[in-house]
Protein 1
Amino acid sequence: MPEPFLTIAKNTAFEMVIKKSRFICQLGRINSEEEAQDFIAQVQRDNRKANHNCYAYLVGDHDQIQRESDNGEPSGTAGVPILESLQLAKLHNVVAVVTRYFGGIKLGAGGLIRAYSNVTTNAVHQAGLVQRVIQTSVAITASYAQHDQLLYFLKEQQITVADEQYGVNVVVTIFVDQDACDQLIADLTTRFNDQLTIKKGQPRNHEVPYIAQS
């Protein structure tokens, strides 16, 4: 089974205070490197007085673009921990910017790594995750006599009707997960003795809440 495509459910911000330093992680959904850079620039403008605005982002279905920056923190203590936190959550198309307002107490390299990692991980948990599922639209043409039976069958399969068009017959449009589409069509064909007209349409991306398997 391929890994699911996961991203954050919503943009969010999470703050932690560690030895008087404020660490604020802002997460954003993105679809391109340009959007990531725009998000980073906005956070930097909003936090001009901060000591550091460190960041990392992942772009692409296979994370083809990955960037990170320590933004003045000791090398490897900020950008990499942020990036690794996103990777550990198996996220895609996400940017994280962690703003630090220095509180006067040095944390050391290990303390910085833990701080940047923890604030990012907590922000991810707060944002929640969604899984992208590719669905196919399916148009089912049925007679009025078959209509109620068709709706009952779809309800049994826990499939929501997206649209209905009434004419000489009824055209019922549904969206089905791509990997289950062929089996559903086969089941419909059997159930209705090959009396339905079934046509596949265009695919779409659909998001569903994701809960990690324990």
Note: The beta strands are 5-8, 12-18, 21-29, 52-59, 65-69, 94-101, 129-142, 161-166, 170-177, 197-209.
Protein 2
Amino acid sequence: MPHSPTPRDSGNLPVLSAPPLIRLDAYVAEDGSTVVNGHLLEMGGMRPANEAILDAIAMFARTLGAPVAATVIDRPAQQVARLRVYPDGSSRTIAEEEDLPPGRERTAAEEEAFPPLARVERIIQHTQREELHAAFVLASALREHLSLRRGAEDELSLEARAIEAYIAYLRGDYMISTVLALTVARIRCRTDLNRAAPEVARATAAWQRLWDEGQVATRGQELLRMWERLSEEGLLHDPSHQAMAQAVRTRLERGSRYVEGPATAAAAALPAAPEPAAPEDRPLKPTRRGLRRFTRRPGRSAG
């Protein structure tokens, strides 16, 4: 008899009051785009993001016949909402201390059910079809949730941020791409200097497309410090990296808006596919009770 992931009582019926087994994740982007478990939701008309999320999660709860846990990163509200959603469509928000303990077994189960690599493949598919808005929102959702769950310096979190930076570059969002790529480079310079040069190169490629003089100067100074440190450590083996370092130095000395030359080849240094509008990551507020937009009484589900 196959094992059922749903808690059962002695009569083999779902235990509706049982604690959730798997924590789902959802994400609301700055523009209201909504992602649940790595899938972009079709909003349809003026349907609010919170209702779309609750309906999608309630569908999981009905399938399991048991409550479902969910973590919602709500960027417009800059909040993390932690939820319990029930098969009847009702939901309540909970405090952080009430949330499921992470634990290695639970984290492994969640990532087995909704593996990050499968989400990356979906992002790549959108990118290949030039559906760059969808790809960017999915990449942002993946990076935000991995950073929340594993920390910003985790390897998967860094890869997700690099993907997000690459898609921003393809979209022409060079400011966002620069900041995302710079964050990856900054972390690599602190934690694994031997792997930092390609990340600094990717950040430089995006920076070379900037036109705002203040951002060119501020970001350029940081890039120059990174290149100089890599040079001091004897880690600038690639001639193209040496040329990019010199291009940053030259542009800052001249104060020019755009430098031709090595910058053109820099785009090729951006990561291959597996590889908010805020310029910097804005910290999310601590979880608290009473986020009414994610609280719903029984019978309200539209699913």
Note: Strands lie at 23-28, 34-36, 39-40, 68-74, 79-85, 91-94.
Protein 3
Amino acid sequence: MLKKWPMLLGHVWIWACALLFLWPLYWMLIGSFKNLKVALQIPPEWIPRQPTLDNFRILVTDFPLFRWLYNSMFISVVATLLVIAVSSLSAYAFAKVPFKGSKWLFAVMIASMSIPHTVLLIPLFQMMNKIGLTNSLWGVLLPLVGWPFGVFLLKQFMQTLPGALIEAAKIDGCSEWQTFSRVILPLAKPGIAVLGIFTFVNSWNDYVWQMIMLKDKLTYTLPVGVKIARQVQEVDINYGVAMAGALCATLPVLLVFLFFQRYFTQGITLGAVKG
């Protein structure tokens, strides 16, 4: 019996941590079904007595919610596909194609990861302004494509793949592109799935860059649109609308993670094994 106590305490600790981390999601969920008066009352209602859908109705009828959702999905999906394409090719070159200066070039790329994102906002905005991409979705997503972390992640993963597979493919007459597309990519699916999740979440939640680049209400993404939707005349923030908007902005990211959770876990496990 005494041997089971550590395991029991461990389970209790895990459940306590899970409830602690789920509490903000629960508060956001119940807050989205409260009107403004109930959302501001003290003590708060832990379970809404009279739930309402008015907050969602305001988002749909008074604001272009579905257009904001489309903009966010377009930026996140296209950025994810481009990052996977660029990062997988670059990672394959660094991991499996020896060339002169590869170590120095990779070191410079890793060093660029230490530069704070806020330092790059002004140069990136000037670049997008010169080529006429301000206030456009492409102006938001193109700077996301050059993500050094994606190259680093896939390089570390591809290094774990046996070099004998590449040698066997070349003996069979495969070109470099055929080796990459037919041998490396299928084996690197778990790593690519992990990168896809990270990229999707990063591009979806890149609120500061989106707020700087987008000025037209129809070009807003969902996180930026929620900021203006929560403003009302009576108070500074309509917490019910804010919670409803936050719920709409959270669900797509949550669904993507749940859908790719198996690949995410597999990628983390395989990427941790050397050789």
Note: Confidence is low (pLDDT under 50) at residues 271-275.
